[in-house]
C-alpha cells in the first residue's frame, strides 16, 4: 500500500555537475582499503596481519564491543599495509587485489522461509551486518536488538547524490530478497520510501511510502520522523538502498559481493566522465575519477553536504555511492559581504538574488565568511522539516545537557539531518559536528 | 585588487602567530575581512556554504536604517531652522539647508557612538582572543538615532560605554546579551540624565517652549496641552479639547496625521518618519533579516491595546455627554474649570469615567499611536534584534504582540514617559527566554506524551 509523505520545509540546491544516467564498470583498482573510521564508534580488533592472503568476504577485523560484527575484505588479495595514526589507531587496512573473484560462499538461503536467527547469523558471518545502521546514535546496529521498524530510503534528494532508481535499475530481484530478509529482523514493519513514479513501488513485504518535497525529504531520518518517530528507549534500523540489494544478493548467491555503484559528480569532474560506475567498496578513487588535475579540487566521498573530504590517493567510504569533485574556494572576494552581490553562489538567504535567478549553480568550498556567535534566529527552522527545535537542540548538545537533549529529540536525529543547517547558517556553525558529539555523549552516558 | 591584497598580506605579517603583534590579530583581521571575504575553506561536511554571513546580515540592517537616518538628518535640520526662521511650515525650510544643518548636528553623534563602541569591542576581542563581531555596526547607528539631538556628546559616550560594557560584554559579548544594547544605552541615559532625555525642550535643536514649542505630540497629549480636535487627532466629538499652554496654539497644532506619518514632527533624531521606518521594515522583511512575525505582532499588539483604551475612552465620553445633556455641568467647565468638576463630588466609577473621557492619551485613536512617538521605530528596529528577542517562531509572535501591547500601555499610563515602547521592549527582552521556555516545553511535552502512548501500546500488546 502506498502512502504519501509531503515535506514542505527544506532546500533543494540545484548544482551544476550532475551525472548522466549511464552505468559503466570502473577500471579495476589495484588497491582497496577498509577504513575503520567509516564505522562510527567501532573499535576495531584485527584478525589478520600485514602480508596475509585474504579471500573476498574474509573477516579483517571485528568490533571490540560486539565481536559478532565482522568487517570483511571486499576483494581477494594480500593485506599490504595496515596504516596506523596517532595512538596506533588503525586508519586503513589496505588490500592489494589479486584480480581473481574468489569469495567465501556461505551457501544459498531461501530467504522467504528463513528464520530471523538464520538471517541474522548470515548477515553477521558474511560481513553484511555493518550495512545496518541503528537510530538513535547513527551507529552500526547492535546484533542483540530487535528494532521496532526498519527503514529504507530509495529516494535521494541531497545535491548531486546518486539516484537509487538508477543504481537499482537491474538489481530489483536482489532488492526484493534483501527487503524480505530485513523483514524477518523486526517486530514491526519494513518501510520503503520512494519518489513519485518509482519502479520500486511494487516491492512486497514492506510498506511503500511516496515522498515528495525538497531536500532533506530523502533523508531517512525525516522519513522516520514522519512515519514512526523514535521514542526514548526504542530502536529503529536503517539500510541504504543499494545495501539492501547487496544483502539480497547474499541470500540469492551465498556470497557477499561488495559491489558499489558510484555516481561521479561535480564541476571538477570531466563532463564525459560524470556517470555511474560499478566498482567495489573501498576502491581507490583514482580508478573512478580518471585523468583530472585535482590540485585545487576537493574530492568528496559522498555528497557535498555530508560527505568526507578525501585526498587524491584515497579510498571510497564504505557507505557512499556518490563521489563529488568541486573546486576549492580558497580565494578572497573583495567586499564579498555586500548584500545582493555574488549571486552566483547558491543561497537560501534574502540578501542574495541567487534563488530568484534560478538555474543551476557552480559551487566551491569557500566558507563565505567567518565563524561568529549565534546571532540570527529562525533560519535553521526554515530547512528543518522535523518537529524539532534545531537551535535549542544544538545548544543543548554544546552544553552537554543530556536531559535537555533527550527532551528536544536527540534520539530522532543524525548529523545528516543538520547538513542543511551547516549550509545555511549565518554564523558558519558546524552543526553536524555538534550533533555528532552530542550523539556520542548520549551513546557513552545512556547507551 | 591584487595590489591591495598584497599590501594587506604584508601589513598582516607582524600579526601572524608567533610574531610581535600576535595578540592584536583580531584588530587587523577586522580590517582585512571588511575589505575581503577571507579565503577560508570548509573543513568537512557541509563542504559548501551559503553566501550569507554575519557581516552581510548586519550591513543589511544598516541599509534598512539609512532611509530613516537620512530623513532624520533632514528633519532635525528642518525642525531647528523652521523654529529659528519663524516659517509657517516645516516643509518650507529649503531642503539642502535643512539637510546640511541636520547632518552637521547628527554626524558627531554617530561618530562618537561608533568610536566609543568599536573601541570597546576591539579591546574585548583582543582580550578574549576572538574575532570582532559585527553586531556593533547596527547598535552603533541605532543609538544616535534614538537620542534627542542635543544630548551632550560625553553623555552619549557614557551611555554607549554602559550599553556595550554592562549591556553586552558583561554577558559574554555578541549573541549572549539579554537586553538590546541600543535600548540599554537609551534607558541608561533616560535614568542618568533625565533632563536631557525627556521634557518639552529637548526634541528640537536649541528648542525652547518660549518661542515655538519643541515638544512632541505625545508629550503634549500627556500634559493635556494638545488640542486634538483642531489638528485632526480627534476620535470623537467629546474628545477633550485641552488648553494649549498660555492659550497659544502649539506648533504641533498644525501637525496632521499625514505630517506625523511623513515625520515632519519633533522627536528623537530618526524615529519620526513612519514612512521611512516602514521602508526599512520592508527591507528587513524582504531580506529575511528581520522577523516579520515580530513586526506584525508588535503593530497588532499596539493596536489592540490602543483599541482597548479607546473603548474605555468612549465609555467616559458617553458619561460626559450624559452629564452635559442633563445640564449638570457644561463642556466648558469640564475642560477648564477644575472647581466646578470637584463640586460635582464624583466618586468611584463615575470619577474614573470622567477621567477616562477627558484623558487625551486614552482617547487618542488607536491606529494613530503608530505614527507618533517611537513605537514603530522600536518595533521594526529594536524588537527584531534576534539576540534579545524570542527565538522560537511561536515565541516571536507572542513577544511581538506583547511588546506592542505593553508599549502603548506604558505610553498611556505613564505620562512621565510616553515613549513606552522602549521600556516595553526591554521588559520583553527579559521575558523572551521565558516565552521560549514555554513554547519549547510544549514540544517537549508532545514528545513525552508520544512516549507514554508508545509504552501503553507496548503493554497492551
Automatic annotation (TrEMBL), chain A:
Keyword Oxidoreductase among record annotations: yes
GO MF annotation list: oxidoreductase activity, acting on NAD(P)H, quinone or similar compound as acceptor
Record-annotated NqrA N-terminal barrel-sandwich hybrid domain positions: 5-97
GO biological process, one term: sodium ion transport
Domain Na(+)-translocating NADH-quinone reductase subunit A C-terminal: residue ranges: 261-310
Keyword Translocase applies: yes
Catalytic activity annotation: a ubiquinone + n Na(+)(in) + NADH + H(+) = a ubiquinol + n Na(+)(out) + NAD(+)
Enzyme class: translocase
Coiled-coil features, chain-numbered ranges: none
One Pfam family of this chain: NQRA_N
Segments forming domain NqrA second alpha/beta: 115-256
EC number: 7.2.1.1
The entry's keywords: Ion transport, NAD, Oxidoreductase, Sodium, Sodium transport, Translocase, Transport, Ubiquinone
Sequence similarity: Belongs to the NqrA family.
UniProt function note: NQR complex catalyzes the reduction of ubiquinone-1 to ubiquinol by two successive reactions, coupled with the transport of Na(+) ions from the cytoplasm to the periplasm. NqrA to NqrE are probably involved in the second step, the conversion of ubisemiquinone to ubiquinol.
Complexes and interactors: Composed of six subunits; NqrA, NqrB, NqrC, NqrD, NqrE and NqrF.
Protein name stated in the entry: Na(+)-translocating NADH-quinone reductase subunit A
Source organism phylogeny: Bacteria, Pseudomonadati, Bacteroidota, Flavobacteriia, Flavobacteriales
From TrEMBL, chain B:
Modified residues (FMN phosphoryl threonine): 216
Classification via InterPro entries: NqrB, NqrB/RnfD
One Pfam family hit: NQR2_RnfD_RnfE
GO biological process: respiratory electron transport chain; sodium ion transport; transmembrane transport
Transmembrane stretches, start-end: 58-82, 102-124, 136-166, 260-285, 292-312, 366-384, 396-414, 420-440
A GO cellular component annotation in the UniProt record: plasma membrane
GO-annotated molecular function: FMN binding; oxidoreductase activity, acting on NAD(P)H, quinone or similar compound as acceptor
Record-listed E.C. numbers: 7.2.1.1
Coarse class of the protein's main subcellular location: membrane
Sequence similarity: Belongs to the NqrB/RnfD family.
NCBIfam families linked: nqrB
Protein name (Swiss-Prot/TrEMBL): Na(+)-translocating NADH-quinone reductase subunit B
Organism: Nonlabens dokdonensis (strain DSM 17205 / KCTC 12402 / DSW-6) (Donghaeana dokdonensis)
